[in-house]
Write a structure and sequence with these properties.
Blueprint lengths: L3 E5 L3 H13 L3 E5 L2 H11 L3 E4 L8 H10 L8 E5 L6 H7 L4 E4 L4 H9 L17
Helix pairs in contact: 2-3
Length: 134
């Protein structure tokens, strides 16, 4: 069974890259161009996982994480930051903000899907436990 994954990403090229990689492995992907639209999509579509950029105009990724973790019905939703932000203290801030994980851009295409699948329930993982070599 594949996962329904929402990608919140303000750069269309990045969104399409993540969509292509995830769909190539069999996952279903929806996209949102900003944090507010992403939160609406989360509440309407109830995805199995959210991948979220941190740096976006309006509601940024940290705000998205805060809103998700405050909502009792969404509190256990796997949430992974995918960002180019690599300054000192960012990983700690990401963890303290309620994200389950953190993947830096530029992403490594062959490692990306195995990296995010570790945050999915086993029943929704499509790769073997030891990953996949491409």
């Amino acid at each position: 069974m594949s996962a329904q994954i929402l990608v919140i990403e303000d750069l269309p090229a990045n969104l399409e890259l993540l969509r292509a990689l995830l769909e190539a492995f069999g996952h279903k992907v929806d996209g949102a161009p900003d944090g507010l639209t992403g939160l609406e999509a989360i509440r309407q579509k109830r995805p199995d996982m959210v991948l979220c950029d941190l740096q976006m105009d309006g509601l940024d990724g940290f705000g998205v994480a805060e809103a998700i973790r405050r909502d009792e019905s969404l509190r256990d939703l796997p949430l992974v930051a995918v960002t180019a932000l690599v300054a000192d203290g960012v990983a700690e801030r990401v963890e303290n903000s309620g994200f389950d994980g953190y993947i830096t851009k530029p992403i490594e295409a062959r490692r990306f899907v195995p990296q995010i699948e570790q945050y999915l329930p086993e029943s929704l993982r499509l790769l073997p436990p030891d990953g996949l070599s491409i």
